[in-house]
Specification:
Cofactor (chain B): FAD
Strand order of the largest sheet of chain A: 9-8-7-10-6-1-4-5-11
CATH superfamily of the largest domain in chain B: HUPs
Distance between the termini of chain A: 58 Å
Mean pLDDT of chain A: 95
Number of helices of chain A: 6
Helix content of chain A: 25-40%
Keywords (chain B): Electron transport, FAD, Flavoprotein, Transport
Strand order of the largest sheet of chain B: 7-11-6-1-4-5-12
Low-confidence stretches of chain A: none
Largest interface: A-B, 84 and 98 residues
Number of helices of chain B: 10
Oligomer: heterodimer
CATH topology of chain A: Rossmann fold
Number of domains of chain B: 2
Structural class of chain B: alpha/beta
CATH superfamily of chain A: HUPs
CATH class of chain A: Alpha Beta
Distance between the termini of chain B: 44 Å
CATH class of the largest domain in chain B: Alpha Beta
Helix content of chain B: 25-40%
Structural class of chain A: alpha/beta
Number of strands of chain B: 18
Strand content of chain A: 25-35%
Pfam family, one (chain B): ETF_alpha
Radius of gyration of chain A: 21 Å
CATH topology of the largest domain in chain B: Rossmann fold
Order of helices and strands of chain B: EEEHEHEHHEHEEEEEEEEHEHEHEHEH
Shape of chain B: elongated
Radius of gyration of chain B: 21 Å
Largest sheet of chain A: 9 strands, mixed
Subunit structure (chain B): Heterodimer of an alpha and a beta subunit.
Family (chain B): Belongs to the ETF alpha-subunit/FixB family.
CATH architecture of chain A: 3-Layer(aba) Sandwich
Number of domains of chain A: 1
Mean pLDDT of chain B: 95
CATH architecture of the largest domain in chain B: 3-Layer(aba) Sandwich
Largest sheet of chain B: 7 strands, parallel
Chain lengths: ~260, ~325
């Protein structure tokens, strides 16, 4: 089975993330990049499926030069090779542009299964897996907390507000996985060493058959008009519990008409 | 005024509160038209949609619309966008709502904005990003604005619309019918409101100490008619089911009132609750960062404070 797992490098949540005042885009240079946490579950799921069914796991990422750190991490976990979609013309793409560029790359790579994390911890739109399924014309098996493949058929448990839906489809398909579907493995020392020798192919816009007019900040379907630091919340009242803490909170809730 | 499509969220034929919020919002920007996707519309549901301002109710009652994952709803909306040229399409910013919005955006070559906490003139949306640290205004510049709005972004207000029903028949493509729902499994969750939609959320964290002790959190939640949430420390420890996790990798909530008990308030947690209107914190550690956000805080042992609070709430009902 030919599995492509999509990963994204995101700013470390623990650092201070900023938008650039010139063009209202995320300043990726100013912060440490880490693998989007939810993508680690996607990598693990891809590796488990490969171990069970055979095949190959290809990592696909779109991002600046330093996103190679994220590729190496996924390769160290055990993926076989990687494709890095990297072109200045892609910078500032919104979800529509990103999904278009990634779909073009995926068509070129070829796949039986595409696996993603359910969202990124920076933009948090959660729309990319659905957009990819739409663009690729393949079944959308998203928000999965269980994935089973049997020959060319695939079944997932899709998390819903009320529990889950059992969903069936035929490969090729796009899957997104939720946190806790598995326990992502830590790269071993051997894995880290081996990752250095694994092939990483860089694709520019032209290589992937991407129309440059459909990607990048200027082509974006939506724009940030302005932004500002959130005004600090007005300092609240902090009381010490002297045996009456619950009563004090109740008084506050009553004053605010919650009770 | 031009039409604004609102995709209806419903459970067993009952319209969810977030849809009433979206209709209220749509009324301030145009003429709301509700879109009912799937079978099972009731007279009560129609009355409710009209009561909150739906001028038209498009009903696409085919079973197939809910028999496959997301894509049929996006095709339905895309056909309505082509036929009615609405000024915008609003959906609830639930996990599925955002997926519908994403596919619709691709289909109609339109921009999409997710997790809006406000929507103003010219469909300029307000979003809260980076764990609540930055407020952003954004707008769609290509196609029909598609906006996924967070529950509790606005207070629902009744104002009757005509509620004229129009049946819609949809032709679904083969690819929209490729991920088939073969079984729906409903998990028991009792009478508590849904976490992302609840007006009040009571969350417990590391300070709760054990799975058994979560009954203290549940007791307060039930006294207030609230949903129960948990920090990642609590769900990772196995004290509370993972689907109730509030935070960066869990659910994002934006309730009227958020009570954090035994939660320190790390950035990852704040990312999931910082847009709550009123925040109350109970924590033993006076230095806990959650107190920086709190409108009211008590430094003390939650095992004393929370049961006392639940008793007080029950007494004052």
């Amino acid at each position: 089975m030919n599995i492509v797992v999509c990963v994204k490098q995101v700013p470390d949540t623990a650092t201070e993330r900023k938008l650039r005042s010139e063009d209202n885009t995320l300043d990726r240079d100013a912060v440490d990049g880490v693998v989007n946490e939810l993508d680690e579950y996607a990598v693990e799921e891809a590796l488990k499926l490969k171990e069970a069914h055979g095949g190959e796991v290809t990592v696909l990422t779109m991002g600046p030069g330093k996103a190679t750190e994220t590729i190496r991490k996924a390769l160290a976990m055990g993926a076989d090779k990687a494709v890095h979609l990297f072109d200045d013309g892609l910078r500032g793409s919104d979800a529509l542009g990103t999904s278009y560029a990634m779909a073009q790359a995926l068509k070129q790579i070829g796949f039986d299964l595409v696996i993603l994390g359910s969202e990124s911890t920076d933009a948090r739109t959660g729309v990319l897996p659905a957009m990819l399924a739409e663009r690729l014309g393949t079944p959308q098996l998203t928000l999965a907390n269980k994935v089973d493949v049997d020959g060319s058929s695939i079944t997932v448990q899709r998390l819903t507000d009320y529990g889950y839906d059992k969903v069936e489809a035929t490969l090729p398909a796009v899957v997104s996985v939720v946190e806790k579907i598995n326990e992502p493995r830590y790269p071993s020392f051997k894995g880290i060493m081996a990752a250095k020798k694994k092939p990483v192919q860089t694709l520019a816009i032209a290589d992937a058959g991407i129309d440059a007019a459909q990607v990048g900040l200027d082509a974006s379907w939506s724009q940030v008009v302005d932004f500002a630091a959130a005004p600090p919340r007005a300092a609240g009242t902090i009381a010490k519990d002297e045996g009456d803490g619950g009563v004090k909170v109740a008084d506050f809730l009553a004053a605010k008409k919650f009770i | 005024m031009s039409e604004i499509l609102v995709l209806v969220e419903q459970v067993d034929g009952e319209v969810k509160k977030v849809t009433l919020e979206l209709l209220t919002l749509a009324r301030s920007l145009g003429t709301p038209a509700a879109v009912w996707a799937g079978p099972g519309i009731t007279a009560e549901a129609k009355a409710k949609l009209a009561e909150y301002g739906a001028d038209t109710i498009y009903v696409a009652g085919a079973e197939d619309i809910v028999g496959y994952v997301v894509a049929p709803k996006a095709e339905l909306l895309a056909q309505l966008v082509a036929a009615k040229s609405p000024a915008a399409v609003l959906v609830a910013a639930t996990a599925e709502g955002k997926e519908v919005a994403g596919r619709l955006a691709v289909k109609t070559d339109s921009g999409v904005i997710t997790d809006a906490v406000g929507l103003g003139e010219g469909f300029v949306a307000e979003q809260s990003i980076f764990g609540g640290g930055v407020n952003v205004h954004s707008k769609v510049s290509r196609g029909t604005p598609i906006v996924a709005v967070r529950p509790n972004s606005t207070a629902p207000e009744a104002s009757a619309g005509a509620g004229t029903e129009e049946e819609v028949s949809v032709t679904l493509s083969d690819s929209a019918k490729s991920a088939r729902v073969v079984e729906r499994v409903k998990q028991e969750k009792g009478a508590r409101p849904e976490l992302t939609e609840a007006a009040i959320v009571v969350s417990g964290g590391r300070g709760v100490g054990s799975a058994e002790n979560f009954s203290v959190i549940e007791g307060l939640a039930d006294a207030l008619g609230a949903a129960v949430g948990a920090s990642r420390a609590a769900t990772d420890a196995g004290w509370y089911p993972h689907q109730f996790q509030v935070g960066q990798t869990g659910k994002t909530v934006s309730p009227q009132l958020y009570i954090a008990a035994g939660i320190s308030g790390a950035i990852q947690h704040r990312a999931g609750m910082q847009t709550a209107k009123t925040i109350v914190a109970i924590n033993k550690d006076p230095e806990a960062p959650i107190f920086e956000l709190a409108d009211y805080g008590v430094v003390g042992d939650l095992h004393q404070v929370v049961p006392q609070l639940a008793d007080e709430v029950n007494k004052r009902k």
